[in-house]
Amino acid sequence: MYQLHYKQRNCLEAFTLAEVLVVLLVIGIISAFTIPSLIYRYDEKQLNTRWKKEFNVAVDAVKKLEANKNFIDLTSDATMRNDFKTVMHFLRESTWNSLSASTYYYYGGSSAPDPPTWVEESALMMNGSLWRFNVLSAGCNATVGGTLNNICAELTVDVNGTKGPNKYGKDLYFIHIAKVNSNYVVYPYGSNNDGQSCSDTSNAVATSRGCSTFFLINDPSTTPP
Questions:
Q1: Cβ contacts of residue 45 below 8 Å, gap of 6+?
Q2: pTM here?
Q3: Distance between CA atoms of 102 and 113, rounded to whole angstroms?
Q4: How many CA atoms lie within 13 A of 103 on its CB side?
Q5: CA distance linking residue 57 with residue 81, whole number of Å
Q6: In the chain, N or C: fewer CB atoms in 10 Å?
Q7: For 35-68, what is the HEC assignment?
Protein backbone atom coordinates (compact mmCIF):
# COMPACT_ATOMS: atom_id res chain seq x y z
CA MET A 1 0.00 0.00 0.00
CA TYR A 2 1.30 3.33 -0.95
CA GLN A 3 1.35 6.12 1.57
CA LEU A 4 1.02 9.67 0.40
CA HIS A 5 2.96 12.24 2.30
CA TYR A 6 2.10 15.95 2.03
CA LYS A 7 4.56 18.61 2.87
CA GLN A 8 2.74 21.43 4.67
CA ARG A 9 3.60 24.89 3.37
CA ASN A 10 4.73 27.29 6.04
CA CYS A 11 1.85 29.79 6.30
CA LEU A 12 4.15 32.33 7.82
CA GLU A 13 6.40 32.47 4.79
CA ALA A 14 7.46 36.09 4.25
CA PHE A 15 6.69 38.26 1.23
CA THR A 16 9.52 38.89 -1.14
CA LEU A 17 11.03 42.36 -1.40
CA ALA A 18 9.55 42.75 -4.87
CA GLU A 19 6.05 41.99 -3.59
CA VAL A 20 6.40 44.55 -0.78
CA LEU A 21 7.59 47.19 -3.23
CA VAL A 22 4.65 46.53 -5.55
CA VAL A 23 2.18 46.93 -2.67
CA LEU A 24 3.83 50.18 -1.55
CA LEU A 25 3.74 51.47 -5.11
CA VAL A 26 0.02 50.76 -5.42
CA ILE A 27 -0.69 52.45 -2.06
CA GLY A 28 1.35 55.48 -3.16
CA ILE A 29 -0.56 55.81 -6.43
CA ILE A 30 -3.93 55.56 -4.69
CA SER A 31 -2.87 58.11 -2.05
CA ALA A 32 -1.65 60.54 -4.69
CA PHE A 33 -5.14 60.63 -6.20
CA THR A 34 -7.30 60.49 -3.06
CA ILE A 35 -5.50 62.48 -0.35
CA PRO A 36 -5.47 65.87 -2.17
CA SER A 37 -9.18 65.46 -2.88
CA LEU A 38 -9.89 64.67 0.77
CA ILE A 39 -7.85 67.67 1.92
CA TYR A 40 -9.66 69.95 -0.55
CA ARG A 41 -13.08 68.79 0.66
CA TYR A 42 -11.99 69.23 4.28
CA ASP A 43 -10.79 72.78 3.58
CA GLU A 44 -14.05 73.64 1.81
CA LYS A 45 -16.03 72.31 4.77
CA GLN A 46 -13.94 74.39 7.18
CA LEU A 47 -14.47 77.57 5.15
CA ASN A 48 -18.20 76.91 4.92
CA THR A 49 -18.40 76.40 8.67
CA ARG A 50 -16.56 79.66 9.22
CA TRP A 51 -18.96 81.50 6.92
CA LYS A 52 -21.94 80.28 8.92
CA LYS A 53 -20.25 81.38 12.14
CA GLU A 54 -19.38 84.81 10.72
CA PHE A 55 -22.95 85.33 9.54
CA ASN A 56 -24.14 84.63 13.08
CA VAL A 57 -21.55 87.10 14.36
CA ALA A 58 -23.06 89.75 12.07
CA VAL A 59 -26.57 88.99 13.31
CA ASP A 60 -25.47 89.14 16.95
CA ALA A 61 -23.51 92.36 16.43
CA VAL A 62 -26.48 94.14 14.89
CA LYS A 63 -28.74 92.93 17.71
CA LYS A 64 -26.28 94.17 20.33
CA LEU A 65 -25.96 97.59 18.69
CA GLU A 66 -29.72 97.93 18.52
CA ALA A 67 -30.08 96.88 22.15
CA ASN A 68 -27.25 99.15 23.35
CA LYS A 69 -28.04 102.36 21.48
CA ASN A 70 -31.07 101.64 19.30
CA PHE A 71 -29.29 102.67 16.11
CA ILE A 72 -26.18 102.18 13.98
CA ASP A 73 -24.28 105.35 13.10
CA LEU A 74 -24.36 105.32 9.31
CA THR A 75 -22.95 108.80 8.82
CA SER A 76 -19.94 107.24 7.10
CA ASP A 77 -18.13 103.95 6.66
CA ALA A 78 -15.83 104.98 9.53
CA THR A 79 -18.66 105.67 11.99
CA MET A 80 -20.29 102.39 11.05
CA ARG A 81 -17.04 100.52 11.65
CA ASN A 82 -16.53 102.30 14.95
CA ASP A 83 -19.98 101.19 16.14
CA PHE A 84 -19.25 97.56 15.24
CA LYS A 85 -15.93 97.84 17.03
CA THR A 86 -17.83 98.18 20.33
CA VAL A 87 -19.39 94.74 19.93
CA MET A 88 -16.70 92.83 17.98
CA HIS A 89 -13.04 91.90 18.49
CA PHE A 90 -10.92 94.02 16.15
CA LEU A 91 -7.22 93.32 15.69
CA ARG A 92 -6.36 95.93 13.07
CA GLU A 93 -8.20 98.67 11.19
CA SER A 94 -7.54 100.14 7.76
CA THR A 95 -9.05 100.19 4.28
CA TRP A 96 -9.99 96.95 2.56
CA ASN A 97 -7.26 97.18 -0.09
CA SER A 98 -4.66 97.59 2.66
CA LEU A 99 -5.75 94.46 4.51
CA SER A 100 -7.07 92.12 1.82
CA ALA A 101 -5.53 89.75 -0.70
CA SER A 102 -4.31 91.24 -3.98
CA THR A 103 -6.31 88.86 -6.19
CA TYR A 104 -9.89 87.57 -5.98
CA TYR A 105 -12.01 85.30 -8.17
CA TYR A 106 -15.65 84.93 -9.10
CA TYR A 107 -17.31 81.64 -8.19
CA GLY A 108 -16.81 80.34 -11.73
CA GLY A 109 -13.08 80.90 -11.51
CA SER A 110 -12.28 84.01 -13.54
CA SER A 111 -10.51 86.98 -11.98
CA ALA A 112 -12.70 89.47 -10.08
CA PRO A 113 -11.09 92.89 -10.55
CA ASP A 114 -13.08 94.92 -8.00
CA PRO A 115 -12.28 93.52 -4.51
CA PRO A 116 -8.55 94.41 -4.53
CA THR A 117 -9.47 98.05 -5.30
CA TRP A 118 -12.05 98.59 -2.55
CA VAL A 119 -11.13 101.45 -0.22
CA GLU A 120 -13.97 101.26 2.32
CA GLU A 121 -13.18 101.13 6.03
CA SER A 122 -12.41 97.57 7.11
CA ALA A 123 -11.13 95.58 10.05
CA LEU A 124 -9.15 92.39 10.59
CA MET A 125 -10.67 90.38 13.42
CA MET A 126 -8.94 88.42 16.15
CA ASN A 127 -10.03 85.16 14.48
CA GLY A 128 -8.40 86.10 11.16
CA SER A 129 -11.54 87.12 9.26
CA LEU A 130 -11.63 90.41 7.35
CA TRP A 131 -14.72 92.65 7.39
CA ARG A 132 -15.62 95.57 5.11
CA PHE A 133 -18.13 98.21 6.25
CA ASN A 134 -19.94 99.99 3.43
CA VAL A 135 -22.78 102.48 4.02
CA LEU A 136 -25.25 102.50 1.13
CA SER A 137 -27.85 104.87 2.59
CA ALA A 138 -27.72 106.68 5.94
CA GLY A 139 -31.51 106.81 5.87
CA CYS A 140 -31.82 103.12 4.93
CA ASN A 141 -33.47 103.97 1.60
CA ALA A 142 -31.28 102.05 -0.81
CA THR A 143 -32.70 99.42 -3.16
CA VAL A 144 -30.89 96.30 -4.38
CA GLY A 145 -32.04 94.35 -7.41
CA GLY A 146 -35.04 96.61 -7.87
CA THR A 147 -37.12 94.75 -5.27
CA LEU A 148 -35.22 94.63 -1.97
CA ASN A 149 -35.80 97.98 -0.30
CA ASN A 150 -34.83 99.77 2.92
CA ILE A 151 -31.16 98.79 2.64
CA CYS A 152 -28.82 100.67 4.97
CA ALA A 153 -25.41 99.12 4.38
CA GLU A 154 -23.52 96.05 3.38
CA LEU A 155 -20.90 93.92 5.06
CA THR A 156 -18.28 91.99 3.13
CA VAL A 157 -16.59 89.10 4.94
CA ASP A 158 -13.48 87.22 3.88
CA VAL A 159 -13.64 84.43 6.43
CA ASN A 160 -9.89 83.70 6.41
CA GLY A 161 -8.37 87.04 5.51
CA THR A 162 -5.65 86.98 2.87
CA LYS A 163 -5.45 83.19 2.74
CA GLY A 164 -6.80 81.45 -0.37
CA PRO A 165 -8.81 80.67 -2.30
CA ASN A 166 -10.03 84.33 -2.18
CA LYS A 167 -13.13 83.38 -4.11
CA TYR A 168 -16.77 84.43 -4.05
CA GLY A 169 -18.83 81.69 -2.43
CA LYS A 170 -15.76 79.94 -1.00
CA ASP A 171 -14.29 82.39 1.50
CA LEU A 172 -15.73 85.75 0.35
CA TYR A 173 -19.34 86.56 1.29
CA PHE A 174 -21.76 89.49 1.39
CA ILE A 175 -24.45 90.65 3.83
CA HIS A 176 -27.21 93.28 3.65
CA ILE A 177 -28.16 95.39 6.65
CA ALA A 178 -31.71 96.68 6.22
CA LYS A 179 -34.33 98.37 8.36
CA VAL A 180 -37.81 96.91 8.58
CA ASN A 181 -40.48 98.38 10.85
CA SER A 182 -37.84 100.47 12.65
CA ASN A 183 -35.73 97.37 13.38
CA TYR A 184 -32.41 96.44 11.80
CA VAL A 185 -32.33 93.10 10.02
CA VAL A 186 -29.53 91.13 8.39
CA TYR A 187 -29.90 89.31 5.06
CA PRO A 188 -27.27 87.34 3.15
CA TYR A 189 -26.87 88.38 -0.47
CA GLY A 190 -28.96 86.13 -2.71
CA SER A 191 -32.09 86.29 -0.54
CA ASN A 192 -35.34 88.26 -0.46
CA ASN A 193 -35.40 88.81 -4.23
CA ASP A 194 -32.32 91.04 -4.23
CA GLY A 195 -31.45 90.06 -7.79
CA GLN A 196 -28.26 88.24 -6.77
CA SER A 197 -27.78 84.56 -7.61
CA CYS A 198 -25.20 81.79 -7.49
CA SER A 199 -24.09 80.07 -10.69
CA ASP A 200 -21.56 77.28 -11.00
CA THR A 201 -20.12 78.99 -14.09
CA SER A 202 -20.36 82.54 -12.73
CA ASN A 203 -17.90 85.10 -13.98
CA ALA A 204 -19.80 88.16 -12.77
CA VAL A 205 -20.73 89.91 -9.53
CA ALA A 206 -24.50 89.37 -9.72
CA THR A 207 -24.16 85.60 -10.17
CA SER A 208 -21.45 85.18 -7.52
CA ARG A 209 -22.59 87.30 -4.56
CA GLY A 210 -25.76 85.22 -4.26
CA CYS A 211 -23.57 82.27 -3.25
CA SER A 212 -23.65 83.88 0.21
CA THR A 213 -27.18 82.53 0.68
CA PHE A 214 -26.67 79.34 -1.31
CA PHE A 215 -23.83 78.13 0.91
CA LEU A 216 -25.45 79.35 4.06
CA ILE A 217 -28.19 76.75 3.53
CA ASN A 218 -26.31 74.13 1.47
CA ASP A 219 -23.31 71.90 2.06
CA PRO A 220 -20.16 73.09 0.22
CA SER A 221 -20.20 69.89 -1.84
CA THR A 222 -23.51 70.98 -3.40
CA THR A 223 -23.13 72.35 -6.94
CA PRO A 224 -25.02 75.62 -7.59
CA PRO A 225 -27.46 75.66 -10.51
A1: 220
A2: 0.83
A3: 10
A4: 5
A5: 14
A6: N
A7: HHHHHHHHHHHHHHHHHHHHHHHHHHHHHHHHHH
- Residue of 207, 123, 125, 220 lying closest to 171 (CA atoms): 220
Residue pair 124/156 in contact (Cβ under 8 Å)? The answer is no
Judge contact between 194 and 176, C-beta under 8 A: yes
Model confidence pLDDT, tens digit, residues 202-220: 999 999 999 999 999 999 9
Q: What share of the chain is helix, strand, coil (3-state, %, to 5)?
A: 35, 25, 45
* Domain boundaries along the sequence of the chain: 17-217
Query: What is the spatial distance between Cα 74 and Cα 140, in angstroms, rounded to a whole number?
Result: 9
Instruction: Render pLDDT for 101-147 as a digit per residue (tens, 0 to 9).
Output: 999 999 999 999 999 999 999 999 999 999 999 999 999 999 998 78
Q: How far is CA 64 from CA 49, 85, 133, in A?
A: 23, 11, 17
SS3 of residue 31 by DSSP? helix
